[in-house]
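Appendix C: a fully annotated inverse folding record. The material below is reproduced so that readers can follow the format used throughout the book. The structure is listed first as tokens, followed by the designed sequence.
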């Protein structure tokens, strides 16, 4: 079995242990150590990282096994691992965002079937290669969603049909309705953060950028927005670091939908000269869906739909089938 070292600077993180191919040994072994840097590999004696899934601005994600469950179920271990040379203030902000993701997953994930559950959150002190200075790492463990994100799905399909985009739009709007009703704004909606489970369910991922609203402004705006966003998916107010709203997420979801419909990147669809989205020529959709998406993409927050419910109501007219005409009258016998 291959076990992956989670020390960020490890020169050779992949470790192979033939004895761990035996599930009984995997369940009972006390610990394994990285052959390159000496890092304890089995985190808190429980989680066995198998491979690196990816890296983001503030961390790395690993596919892992949980030894404390009967089937040693798969899970995702995220490690706080900020990239670049951050100032103390930036590092503090990054750590707070990581901790916030854990808090939000604990608050929301266990209450909604399309948000991953939080399974654990812990810090770990391990021996450093610098004497008398242990390394401290922070981890969160969440439910593993066995499937494929919309970015990968788009690579395969090249373009989504209107029906396929309507499914994504409707399902994620339902999740956002729940998120917004719980006084949070996701702030990073994009194809790679929407995952389709193998059973067809759609999940909203990555709550590391979420902004929680105070009760005084719930449903209105979040003040003091940090500069966490994905360029061009984020609306103007988020790019400026201004207040963010539920409609901030709706804008990003609108961008996601036109990217899926056209198969083009956002910078290919945004005309910087006119400050407008130019996407209609690259796909065939109904006029009604076009109007809904264009309203979601308006630059001014107050001009957009103000809630996920409003968009769902507008979409209802697209999915309601017209009533069948009455049968013709039966002719009377001669």
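Designed amino acids, in order:
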């Amino acid at each position: 079995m291959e076990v992956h070292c989670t020390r960020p600077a490890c020169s050779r993180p992949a470790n192979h242990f033939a004895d761990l191919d035996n599930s009984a040994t995997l369940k009972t072994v006390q610990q394994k150590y990285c052959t390159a840097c000496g890092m304890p590999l089995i985190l808190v004696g429980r989680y066995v990282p198998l491979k690196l899934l990816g890296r983001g601005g503030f961390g790395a994600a690993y596919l892992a096994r949980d030894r404390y469950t009967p089937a040693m179920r798969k899970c995702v271990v995220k490690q706080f691992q900020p990239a670049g040379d951050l100032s103390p203030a930036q590092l503090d902000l990054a750590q707070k965002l990581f901790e916030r993701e854990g808090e939000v997953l604990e608050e929301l994930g266990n209450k909604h079937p399309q948000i991953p559950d939080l399974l654990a959150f812990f810090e770990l002190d391990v021996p450093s290669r610098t004497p008398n200075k242990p390394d401290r790492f922070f981890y969160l463990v969440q439910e593993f969603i066995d499937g494929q994100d919309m970015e990968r799905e788009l690579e395969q399909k090249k373009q989504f049909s209107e029906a396929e985009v309507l499914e994504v739009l409707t399902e994620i709007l339902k999740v956002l309705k729940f998120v917004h009703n719980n006084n949070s704004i996701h702030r990073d909606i994009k194809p790679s953060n929407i995952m389709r489970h193998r059973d067809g369910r759609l999940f909203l991922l990555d709550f590391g950028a979420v902004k929680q609203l105070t009760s005084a402004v719930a449903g209105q705006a979040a003040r003091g927005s940090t500069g966490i966003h994905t360029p061009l998916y984020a609306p103007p107010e988020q790019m400026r670091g201004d207040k963010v709203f539920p409609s901030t997420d709706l804008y990003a979801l609108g961008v996601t939908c036109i990217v899926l419909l056209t198969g083009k990147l956002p910078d290919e669809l945004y005309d910087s000269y006119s400050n407008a989205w130019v996407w209609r020529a690259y796909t065939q959709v109904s006029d009604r869906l076009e109007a809904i998406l264009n309203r979601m993409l308006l630059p001014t927050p107050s001009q957009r739909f103000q809630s996920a419910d409003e968009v769902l109501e507008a979409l209802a007219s697209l999915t309601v089938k017209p009533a069948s005409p009455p049968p013709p009258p039966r002719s009377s016998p001669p």
